[in-house]
Amino acid sequence: METRYIVDEDGKRVSVILPIEEYERMVEKLEDIEDARAADKVRAAVACGEDEFIPYEQAREEIARRRTAKR
């Protein structure tokens, strides 16, 4: 990977320049990690009885009802 740095007047690295493909890969990987952490939180809440799963269709109906009620 070709990484270049921008330095300040003291020679301290303050920014990095990298190929856009590498940047996009890193962002995608971070999003995957965030998704996995969110899923872990949900599983833990369900396991502790703090939350529950509901069927997809039920969730869609509830969301639609709430949107309609706001209008």
Describe the structure.
This protein is of the alpha+beta class. Helices cover 61% and strands 13% of the residues. The chain has two helices and two strands. The protein has a two-stranded antiparallel ribbon. The chain is elongated and about 55 Å long. The model has no long low-confidence stretch (mean pLDDT 90).
SSE arrangement:
Blueprint: E1 4-7, E2 13-17, H1 20-47, H2 56-70
Antiparallel strand pairs: 1-2
Cα Rg: 22 Å
Low-confidence stretches: none
Q: How large is the count of helical segments?
A: 2
User: Taking all residues together, what is the mean pLDDT?
Assistant: 90
Percent helix: 55-70%
Distance between the termini: 52 Å
Strand content: 5-15%
Major sheet attributes: 2 strands, antiparallel
- Can you write the helix and strand succession as a string? EEHH
Number of strands: 2
Query: What is the overall shape?
Result: elongated
The spatial strand order of the largest sheet comes to: 1-2
User: Structural class of the secondary elements?
Assistant: alpha+beta
Tally of domains: 1
Summarize the structure.
With 71 residues, the chain is α+β, with helices and mostly antiparallel strands.
Key terms:
71 residues; alpha+beta; 2 strands; 13% strand; elongated
